[in-house]
Give the backbone structure.
Amino acid sequence: MAVRTRLVSTELTCLTCGVALTDMTQILPEAMPADDWAGGSVADYFSLMKPRVMTLVILTALVGIVAAPGHIHPLIGAIALLAIAVGAGASGALNMWFDADIDARMARTAARAIPRGKISAEEAFTFGMVLSVFSVLTLGLLVNYFAGAFLAFTIAFYVVIYTMWLKRRTQQNIVIGGAAGAFPPMVGWAAVTGGVSLESILLFLIIFVWTPPHFWALALYRMRDYGRVGVPMMPNVSGPQTTKRQILIYSVILAPLGVAPYFIGLGGLTYLATSAFGGVVFVWYAWKLFQIREDGREADAAARRLFGFSILYLFALFLVLLAEHTMRIAMGG
Amino acid sequence: MESAVEPDQGDKPSAAWLRQRRMRSIAIALILVALTGMFYAATIIRIGANVLNRGM
């Protein structure tokens, strides 16, 4: 009889299905008859691509495409966007392949397709590699070679530099690794122009500086998870108070950086108002978090508020940029 | 770590397994058709009017 073996995890509660792992053991027994096993569904494979992360990648890359000077045929632009999105999805699948061991032991990730036994790590690796090659070749052949090479670099950076090298070695993992998540608007810009420019570098910098306070806010209320699996996030290594100070510093740098596109002509007045207001609120949330010295529910709640707002902030900035440039193109600008 | 495995050689695949495999196959087929169409359309767009620009 064919059997499958689940990854062994302990002392965890699955956030997605809301049951303790002792209960999950009843759902996923050590040995399950092949008759009950159906393999990974299409949805399971799609989940390997981290759809929520892809949403942000699609938005930021789209802004890079529409904000770039020059003309690109709408279909070629759509293909570029699709290739960038699939490339990001490939990075996600390769990340899940490499991190399968720690994903199974963290509440936030225990319900992913590999820890649940729906897809094997090897299948995820193959899936990620095939998507990587296809997305890079498609972007290179149908759009331009520079953009294709840039996408290949972005995937390699996320998988090799961040996932394999930095993530488990240094508390600065997401500072440096965050660059991979910041490249999509530059790749989108390169798809149109065939190069980089100050404007695209500025879009990169906004996401790059936004990433540490965003992830450290999450890490603050997920400390025990990261500590249990040995991932050196800043709250575990340097302590919550140092993390809060670092979050505040990055937030203070981010606020003016977020406004900067207006001053180089990349954003309009709506963008100026949105980024200025958002920047002030971002710093205010970071300041409120910094002021809470004691660990506990109050600190967790403040970190959650900052984490939630950080997502809203970045989406708002790029949505306004998208709207402004779409209107400019619609009016023949 | 041992991962999920397919039914052993000689085992009769379950109906659920066959259904999932069929769904995956359909998804792959649709993606391949879409890719073909995408490469065809992009080629036409990129060549554009140059398709008539041939040396005599």
Observations:
- Residues 93 and 189 of chain A are 25 Å apart (CA to CA).
- Chain A touches chain B through 33 residues (CB under 8 Å).
- Residues 297-330 of chain A form the longest helix (34 residues).
- The radius of gyration of chain A is 21 Å.
